[in-house]
């Protein structure tokens, strides 16, 4: 029987305690201060017979032939029968303000039928951004996080041996043109848009600088103007802004993962007055056929006589229980636990309460 797990999380210990202040840098991003995704296509060599088979991955053979030709080695298709090479996709993120010569981490994943990248080495691979330009070059030994063992009649795989990583495996060759010191304003983008949180960020910035610098544009954007500060370094201004603390506001939510049996509820969840009844009805049908056969040396034949047993059983359940008006999260949990409600039944009860219009929260079912 599958084991259900219930995880009930509140945003604080008591419902009356307000959420703790959070730094602006932990709840928002600054426009222009972001990374850029990079991708490349290359070869991994040095595998212990776990590479691509050229019959199923002809692109690997073409890449290997092209690489050897660039190195001055002329080969024919018949000469390429190695199982130590694999074609891979290399991914990474170019951080904001990354300078030429700095290093970044990259991930490596197979695209052919290679079974493992353990012990492999990535050959020099250019990495491009969305604009098609090369911004970094990756190369190095791969750290694979899994292992695969195969025998005549069994195969055991632990982890994902077809993917790996190269810490500091790419060197930045091209910088993104962005003069941060010349900007006149910057937008603060909230990761969770909310009008209350945005206005609190505006008030915190204006109060700290003692002037009207920030303006709330919408629920997810706060614009900060630098013109009234005179000759200042925008980087120093943002360093001061991102460490200001604001108490974030959030919507009441109930998240249910029906597959894992997980329930997550915030402290702002409220329940209106409602009555709940819960019980289980079990119908059990079993077959117990009886074999009938004649006595020894008597005439007749052996037959099977079907016999069916049907049983209907109803579990006691909790009866009708009334939940008072404006019940808090802690009161709801305490009441359901006192009634002996199990995790699976609790999920069904919450969905029914929401359908009845008594659950004042956004219900998210995954």
From TrEMBL:
Q: Which GO terms describe its biological process?
A: bacterial-type flagellum-dependent cell motility
Report the main location listed first in the record.
Answer: other
Q: Name one GO molecular function term.
A: structural molecule activity
**Any one GO CC term of the record:** bacterial-type flagellum basal body, distal rod, P ring
- Kindly give the InterPro entries that the UniProt entry links to this protein: Flag_FlgI (IPR001782)
Q: Which Pfam families match?
A: FlgI
Q: Where in the cell is it found?
A: Bacterial flagellum basal body
Q: Does the UniProt entry include the keyword Signal? A: yes
Q: Which UniProt keywords apply?
A: Bacterial flagellum, Cell projection, Cilium, Flagellum, Periplasm, Signal
The signal peptide here is 1-19
> In which domain of life is the source organism classified?
Bacteria
Q: Tell me, in a sentence or two, what this protein's role is.
A: Assembles around the rod to form the L-ring and probably protects the motor/basal body from shearing forces during rotation.
Regarding protein family, the annotation reads: Belongs to the FlgI family.
Which NCBIfam families does the UniProt entry name for this protein?
PRK05303.1
Question: What do we know about how this protein assembles, alone or with others?
Answer: The basal body constitutes a major portion of the flagellar organelle and consists of four rings (L,P,S, and M) mounted on a central rod.
Q: What is this protein called?
A: Flagellar P-ring protein
Species of the source: Paracoccus homiensis
Upper classification of the organism: Bacteria, Pseudomonadati, Pseudomonadota, Alphaproteobacteria, Rhodobacterales
